[in-house]
């Protein structure tokens, strides 16, 4: 049996000590006098030489021994101990994510993971060993080989080779483990998402930490998991637990012999969301039932606080593919899918908002005195300016419109006029500068600060933007027609579904733009609240309450007598605005379908926005989804 305190390492098992001094006996002295002159001194001289040589030899050995003991002794002791005792990391389970009803949306499940310990792997036949191993467990041989080599021959940190292995594959490896010294199976916790298609963009996913991420997070283990997108990324600092450790005894090949002690890992802290899981499921179900798996998005907000109650992007994806270590084939299938399932349309998709913007234009026109609630503008279906025709959505027109009926019936002619002016009526209109001002005040052209990565600001175009965006001088001119277009949510104006929800919420609550937020609170492992989120107002008071109320009344008439009368049969009062937005100049019939609504009308508690890409008319594609979801909400949540 080998001495456990001895060093058994291929780099240090060679003897160093067979030193020879090679010289001729008379090489040190060349006598010029006759030999008999030194005859009496020969023996004495030779003895002196031998003594000096011996001192030199012992001096060299002493220096070398001192170097080994003092300078490198600690390193060799560490190597010796690591051949006997090692400390191994135990990955910590991540915190659980709960919805507002305290229902878990994720779990942690055990997973078999094949790892390598570089210090125990023979570099000489590494490629051959990995090739043989890949016949049991498929992986990229060259990639793993590079990782092991880069980690260094004295590293005891685990290098991940294959995660989430099937149990039978793990058992097969264990039966052949002696053929692969330095390789072993670990049991690590990984994420399991309960309803990936419904919550995929909201929750995001985890994956193996990359070299770049590890450099930014040196406290993580080499084979650790980290949040990559969604809430998993935003709240990584809370969800990440504290690794445990165990002291194990191994043989010279790294094979486990005994466990001497263990410090259990500490699970991460848990998140409680504002998301109502049942509402999210209902909204998702209605979109799919009425539009199939078309590209779509939906957002539900509490207008009194900015709390996000639901957030959906279709099509979704299976985020469990990532948590277990996604294959290159599956990843390429997602990336190359023309439906772009990884793209979060709710916060990053930017679209012309169409008529959903008209309530904000009405509020701006009232605030600036361009019109009042009694001003009448006749909608004959066509506004002519400089020989150009700007048509309304209804041929022949809608007749005489005031601000309330213009919102309810979505009169394009009315909003062309209040936005860009009409000389025949002596109405100057808001103009591009004031439109830009109020678009900004209502949250357009900016990130609203939702606690998810990837939010986009949209675009509010204007004369200065046009000068900078286009290189051709003929395209840099801002025309009155440009103002007309953005006044009805068309042209180059772009907004996200989240922004539409937030400006609807601003109207619903009487004039306060809140920051949208998903996280409600964070709990430690004993259920104590360690962080409580609070509503944050971005801005307020920029529209007079009486003007906001007029706009609210117009949105109520949309339901009672306008373009969304189907909602009037609900068991709850509501208000809303339809939107049909052209997105292809070559095909006027190619339109996105929008609908935004809030309820109850008297004291709004929920805003719902639905967008169906290329869905046609908002009233036929998006409105039915909102209607059925509000019906469910009225029956299950309006208490």
Question: What can you see in these coordinates?
Answer:
- The chain is α+β, with helices and mostly antiparallel strands and 639 residues long.
- The N terminus is likely disordered.
- The chain is built from 24 helices and 23 strands.
- It folds into three domains: 74 residues, no CATH class; 185 residues, Penicillin-binding protein 2a (Domain 2) (Alpha-Beta Complex), CATH 3.90.1310.10; 358 residues, 3-Layer(aba) Sandwich (Beta-lactamase).
- The chain has a five-stranded antiparallel beta sheet with strand order 12-11-23-22-21, with helices on both faces. The protein has a four-stranded mixed beta sheet with strand order 2-10-18-19, with no helix packed on it. A three-stranded antiparallel beta sheet has the order 1-8-9, with no helix packed on it.
- Helix 17 packs across helix 20.
Supply the key terms.
alpha+beta; 24 helices; Beta-lactamase; five-stranded antiparallel beta sheet; 639 residues
CATH architecture assignment of the largest domain:
3-Layer(aba) Sandwich
In DSSP terms, counting alpha (H) and pi (I) runs of 4 or more, how many helices?
A: 24
Number of domains: 3
* Ends apart, CA distance between termini: 76 Å
What is the number of E strands?
Answer: 23
Portion of residues in beta strands equals 15-25%
Shape from CA axes? elongated
Q: Mind summarizing the main beta sheet?
A: 5 strands, antiparallel
Helix/strand-derived category reads alpha+beta
Helical amount among residues, as a percent range? 25-40%
Looking at the chains present, what oligomeric state does this protein adopt? single chain
* Strand order, sheet with most strands: 12-11-23-22-21
- Uncertain spans: 1-40
**Mean residue pLDDT:** 87
């Amino acid at each position: 049996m080998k001495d456990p305190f001895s060093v058994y390492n291929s780099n240090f098992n060679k003897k160093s000590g067979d030193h020879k001094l090679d010289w001729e006996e008379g090489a040190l002295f060349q006598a010029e006098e006759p030999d008999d002159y030194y005859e009496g001194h020969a023996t004495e001289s030779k003895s002196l030489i031998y003594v000096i040589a011996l001192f030199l030899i012992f001096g060299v050995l002493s220096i070398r021994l001192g170097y080994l003991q003092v300078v490198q002794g600690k390193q060799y002791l560490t190597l010796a101990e690591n051949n006997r005792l090692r400390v191994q990391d135990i990955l910590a389970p991540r915190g659980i994510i709960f919805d507002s009803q305290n229902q878990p949306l994720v779990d942690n499940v055990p997973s078999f993971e094949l790892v390598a310990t570089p210090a125990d792997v023979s570099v000489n036949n590494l490629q051959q060993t990995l090739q043989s191993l890949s016949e049991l467990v498929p992986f990229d041989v060259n990639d793993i080989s590079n990782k092991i080599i880069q980690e260094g021959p004295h590293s005891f940190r685990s290098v991940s080779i294959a995660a989430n292995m099937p149990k039978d594959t793990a058992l097969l490896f264990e039966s052949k483990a002696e053929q692969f010294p330095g390789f072993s199976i670990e049991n690590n916790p990984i994420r399991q998402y309960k309803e990936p298609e419904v919550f995929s963009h909201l929750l995001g996913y985890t994956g193996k930490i990359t070299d770049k991420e590890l450099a930014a997070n040196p406290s993580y283990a080499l084979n650790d998991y980290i949040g990559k997108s969604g809430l998993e990324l935003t709240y990584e600092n809370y969800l990440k637990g504290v690794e445990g450790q165990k002291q194990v005894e191994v043989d010279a090949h790294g094979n486990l012999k005994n466990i001497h002690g263990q410090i259990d890992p500490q699970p991460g802290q848990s998140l409680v969301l504002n998301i109502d899981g049942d509402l999210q499921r209902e909204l998702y179900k209605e979109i799919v039932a009425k539009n199939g798996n078309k590209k779509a998005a939906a957002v539900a907000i509490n207008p009194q606080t900015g709390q996000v109650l639901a957030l959906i992007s279709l099509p979704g994806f299976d985020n469990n593919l990532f948590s277990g270590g996604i294959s290159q084939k599956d990843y390429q299938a997602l990336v190359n899918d023309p439906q772009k399932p990884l793209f979060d349309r709710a916060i990053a998709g930017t679209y012309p908002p169409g008529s959903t913007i008209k309530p904000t234009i009405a509020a701006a026109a009232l605030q600036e005195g361009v019109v009042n609630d009694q001003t009448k503008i006749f909608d004959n279906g066509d506004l002519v300016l400089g020989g150009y025709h700007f048509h309304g959505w209804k041929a022949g027109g809608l007749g005489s419109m005031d601000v309330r009926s213009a919102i309810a019936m979505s009169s394009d002619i009315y909003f062309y006029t209040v936005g860009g002016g009409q000389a025949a009526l002596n109405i100057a209109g808001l103009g591009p500068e004031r439109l830009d001002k109020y678009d900004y005040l209502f949250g357009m052209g900016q990130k609203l600060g939702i606690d998810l990565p990837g939010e986009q600001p949209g675009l509010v175009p204007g004369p200065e933007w046009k000068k900078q965006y286009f290189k051709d001088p003929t395209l840099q001119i801002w025309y009155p027609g440009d103002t007309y277009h953005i006044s009805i949510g068309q042209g180059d104006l772009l907004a996200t579904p989240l922004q539409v929800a937030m400006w609807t919420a601003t109207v619903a609550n009487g004039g306060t733009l809140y920051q949208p937020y998903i996280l409600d609170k964070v709990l430690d492992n004993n259920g104590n609240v360690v962080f409580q989120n609070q509503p944050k107002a971005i801005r307020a008071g920029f529209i007079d309450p009486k003007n906001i109320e007029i706009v609210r009344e117009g949105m109520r008439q949309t339901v009672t007598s306008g373009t969304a009368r189907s909602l009037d049969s609900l068991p709850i009062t509501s208000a809303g605005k339809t939107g049909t937005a052209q997105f292809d100049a070559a095909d006027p019939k190619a339109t996105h379908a929008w609908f935004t609504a809030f309820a109850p009308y008297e004291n709004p508690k929920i805003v719902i926005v639905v967008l169906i890409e290329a869905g046609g008319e908002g009233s036929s594609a998006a409105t039915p989804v909102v209607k059925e979801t509000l019906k469910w909400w009225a029956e299950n949540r309006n208490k």
